[in-house]
Amino acid sequence: MYLACKFPTVKDNQQLRSKISILAISGSLRPNSSNSAVITTAATLVAGEVAFIIYEGLGSLPHFDGSDDPAPEVVEFRKLLSEADGILISSPEYAFGVPGSLKNALDWTVSTGELVNKPVALITAATGGDKAHASLKLTLTALSARVLEESTLLLSFIRSKMNTNCEITDTETIQAIKNIMDTFIRDINIQKN
Which of 10, 147, 166, 171 could form a disulfide with 43 if both were Cys (CB 3.0 to 4.6 A apart)? Predict the structure, then answer.
């Protein structure tokens, strides 16, 4: 059962370029997903510190086919990845694995290297989540992304930490997300300087 939730969407408003930019990707295509709520919470916690862009085109990416002439959606996705100082991924676990749409998006970067040495924070929010979390860490390692262990978080039983408005209400969970984001932002700043 899934909650029918609504929450605000953070849009790219091209804040001052002196701020670092984080591209956030929810691995769920559900409009009211708990992973989108995690991203919204993360965005709220770092508001004012970074330019936070939420990628909403995951479901429109074509199936990966290794094309040398990819669709415009793929070109735009790769551009967003390249321009961001860091990438935040929040993903559910489907059938003990990574959602196909998220894996498909990551596959589009294999030959072009947008994630090579790119700071990435990974949050897996699911009922269990450990298998998807481990799989995503392995995939990001294969893509040569910079994923610090301190920038990863597994949030099991995420729905029990939320209210009916899809807001995370559990104070320990909110603090854990804040800690991950603080570490992630510090790492991005180190990489930039």
Answer: 10
Nearest CA to 25 among 96, 94, 113, 92?
Answer: 92
Q: Is the dihedral of CA 166, 170, 173, 175 positive or negative?
A: positive
Q: How many CB atoms lie within 10 A of CB 3?
A: 14
Instruction: Using a cut of 0.85, tell me whether the model's pTM lies above it.
Output: yes
Residues 118/86, Cβ–Cβ less than 8 Å: yes
CA distance 22 to 20: 7
CA 57, CA 81: separation in Å to the nearest integer?
13
Q: Do residues 120 and 147 lie in contact, with contact meaning Cβ atoms separated by under 8 Å?
A: yes
- Number of domains observed in the structure of the chain: 1
Res 159 pLDDT > 80: yes
For residue 1, tell me if it sits in a domain.
no
- Could you tell me the CATH number of the domain that includes residue 188? 3.40.50.360
Quick check: is 63 in a domain? Answer: no
CA atoms within 13 A on the CB side of 114: 20
